Amino acid sequence: MSEASFEKYSAEEWEHIRKRFFNSILNDTEIAKLGQNVGVSWPFKGKGETAEKYIEYDFEELKSVPGLVGKQSRIKTLMDILRETLAFDDPFSDMVDTVESESEVDDTFERILAKLEIPPSYPCEFVHFEAGTRELLRDEGVNTLIEVVHFGQKLARNVVVGGDLKTFLNGLAHKDEVGITKHLPYRRGIRGLHLPEAIGLIANDLPEAAQLQLLSQSDTSLTD
After folding, report:
1. Which tens digits make up the pLDDT trace of 174-218?
2. Which residues are within 8 A (CB) of 175 and not within 5 positions of it... i.e. 6 or more apart?
3. Is 77 left (phi over 0), alpha (psi -120 to 50) or beta?
4. Phi, psi at residue 199, to the nearest 5°?
5. Taking the model in full, what pTM does it have?
6. Secondary structure class of 191 (helix, strand, coil)
7. Strands (DSSP E) along 79-142, which ranges?
8. Count of H helices and E strands in the chain?
9. Alpha-carbon span 147 to 141, nearest angstrom
């Protein structure tokens, strides 16, 4: 269910925001900083002023939190900041919300891959993921890049997608070249996939001693 299905500033919307933030990498970021990113001012600053502080309360309890007592406008501001942060942090989930059934076809990612000249048939085993994600994809029989995307879309209809799979899909959704290079041998400013970057991703997974050994054999000098 998308956020548009909830009445704004309602208990239902707050529950939706809470559940989304429980799994967000931004739940321990200062709300004032989140507010700056979305153009909304938050009156309190400090390490303890995070989403994590507030999402432990349900909607009624929120009204009794120090600093929010009798401040309905402040509660609305809090919800505005968290809502807009989620919209920016998780565009992939928003895309999933637009697909109401498995029979519908969403070719958003196909078009993004085509624009970046990244082949949808790129082998899944060469996409850089953490061991747990690789194991999950292998167990589910995911073989290609586009199958990774479709698996993520299907998974997100039932559970909250997290970890580096979410990061990767969000990077694609944003066409974030820096984020994409963490998972694919993509070169910023140049479309397509490239062999040197592919080797670099493989090397990143090697122990530091092995990396240094390879570097020494390449006659490359280390620099500060």
Report:
1. 788 888 999 999 998 889 999 999 988 888 877 788 777 777 776
2. 112, 115, 116
3. alpha
4. -65, -40
5. 0.53
6. strand
7. none
8. 13, 2
9. 9
